[in-house]
Amino acid sequence: MADTTSQQGAAIESGAGANVPAVKITVRPNGPFRVEGPVSLVDVEGKEWDLTGKPAISLCRCGLSSKRPFCDGNHGREGWKCDASPIPSVPVAQG
Fold first, then answer.
1. Considering the entire predicted model, what is its pTM?
2. Of all helices (H) and strands (E), which one includes residue 75?
3. Which residues contact 43 (CB under 8 A, 6 or more apart)?
4. Contact, 26 vs 33, CB < 8 A?
5. Would you call 77 helix, strand, or coil by DSSP?
6. Strand blocks (E) in 1-95
7. Which in 15, 31, 37, 51 has the greatest CB count within 10 A?
8. Which domains does the chain carry?
9. At 74, which helix (H) or strand (E)?
10. d(CA 80, CA 73)
11. How many Cβ atoms are within 10 Å of 60's Cβ, its own excluded?
Protein backbone atom coordinates (compact mmCIF):
# COMPACT_ATOMS: atom_id res chain seq x y z
CA MET A 1 0.00 0.00 0.00
CA ALA A 2 1.50 3.34 -1.04
CA ASP A 3 1.37 6.08 1.58
CA THR A 4 1.77 9.67 0.40
CA THR A 5 0.38 11.49 3.42
CA SER A 6 3.41 13.72 3.94
CA GLN A 7 2.38 16.20 1.25
CA GLN A 8 -0.59 18.56 1.36
CA GLY A 9 -3.47 17.35 -0.77
CA ALA A 10 -1.98 13.87 -0.96
CA ALA A 11 -3.99 10.70 -1.20
CA ILE A 12 -3.66 7.30 0.39
CA GLU A 13 -4.03 4.19 -1.69
CA SER A 14 -6.68 2.01 -0.12
CA GLY A 15 -6.57 -1.77 -0.09
CA ALA A 16 -8.87 -1.77 -3.13
CA GLY A 17 -6.45 0.43 -5.08
CA ALA A 18 -8.64 3.54 -4.96
CA ASN A 19 -7.12 6.82 -3.85
CA VAL A 20 -8.72 8.33 -0.75
CA PRO A 21 -7.88 11.94 0.18
CA ALA A 22 -5.51 12.15 3.12
CA VAL A 23 -6.59 13.74 6.37
CA LYS A 24 -4.70 16.89 7.33
CA ILE A 25 -4.59 18.09 10.95
CA THR A 26 -3.28 21.60 11.55
CA VAL A 27 -2.40 22.75 15.07
CA ARG A 28 -3.52 26.38 15.05
CA PRO A 29 -1.45 28.80 17.16
CA ASN A 30 -3.31 29.45 20.43
CA GLY A 31 -6.29 27.68 18.92
CA PRO A 32 -7.93 24.42 17.91
CA PHE A 33 -6.90 21.40 15.90
CA ARG A 34 -8.19 22.00 12.35
CA VAL A 35 -9.08 18.65 10.77
CA GLU A 36 -9.54 18.55 7.00
CA GLY A 37 -10.51 15.50 5.00
CA PRO A 38 -12.76 12.50 5.37
CA VAL A 39 -12.93 11.51 9.05
CA SER A 40 -15.37 9.94 11.44
CA LEU A 41 -15.52 11.25 14.98
CA VAL A 42 -16.76 8.86 17.66
CA ASP A 43 -17.02 8.92 21.44
CA VAL A 44 -15.71 6.22 23.75
CA GLU A 45 -18.95 4.26 23.33
CA GLY A 46 -18.68 4.31 19.54
CA LYS A 47 -21.44 6.90 18.97
CA GLU A 48 -20.62 8.96 15.90
CA TRP A 49 -21.09 12.70 15.37
CA ASP A 50 -22.85 13.59 12.12
CA LEU A 51 -20.25 15.42 10.03
CA THR A 52 -22.28 15.27 6.81
CA GLY A 53 -21.40 18.19 4.55
CA LYS A 54 -18.43 19.28 6.69
CA PRO A 55 -15.17 19.10 4.73
CA ALA A 56 -13.32 20.37 7.83
CA ILE A 57 -13.90 20.66 11.58
CA SER A 58 -12.09 22.42 14.43
CA LEU A 59 -11.54 20.44 17.61
CA CYS A 60 -11.06 22.12 20.99
CA ARG A 61 -7.70 21.68 22.67
CA CYS A 62 -8.00 24.32 25.42
CA GLY A 63 -10.86 22.61 27.29
CA LEU A 64 -12.86 25.85 27.50
CA SER A 65 -15.38 25.16 24.71
CA SER A 66 -19.02 24.71 25.62
CA LYS A 67 -19.41 22.68 22.40
CA ARG A 68 -16.66 20.11 23.01
CA PRO A 69 -15.22 18.30 21.24
CA PHE A 70 -15.68 21.17 18.79
CA CYS A 71 -14.09 24.60 19.17
CA ASP A 72 -16.39 27.54 19.94
CA GLY A 73 -13.73 30.26 20.10
CA ASN A 74 -13.57 30.51 23.91
CA HIS A 75 -9.79 30.08 23.77
CA GLY A 76 -9.53 33.59 22.28
CA ARG A 77 -12.05 35.19 24.63
CA GLU A 78 -10.31 33.68 27.65
CA GLY A 79 -6.76 34.46 26.48
CA TRP A 80 -5.67 30.81 26.32
CA LYS A 81 -2.13 30.49 24.93
CA CYS A 82 -0.21 27.48 23.74
CA ASP A 83 2.76 27.35 21.43
CA ALA A 84 2.49 24.31 19.25
CA SER A 85 5.23 23.49 16.84
CA PRO A 86 7.16 20.32 16.25
CA ILE A 87 10.13 20.08 18.55
CA PRO A 88 13.22 20.25 16.35
CA SER A 89 15.44 17.23 16.68
CA VAL A 90 18.79 18.55 17.80
CA PRO A 91 21.74 16.20 18.00
CA VAL A 92 22.76 15.59 21.59
CA ALA A 93 26.46 16.14 22.29
CA GLN A 94 28.16 12.89 23.23
CA GLY A 95 31.06 12.89 25.62
1. 0.70
2. helix 74-77
3. none
4. yes
5. helix
6. 11-13, 19-21, 24-27, 33-36, 56-59
7. 31
8. 23-41+51-81 (3.40.5.90)
9. helix 74-77
10. 10
11. 20
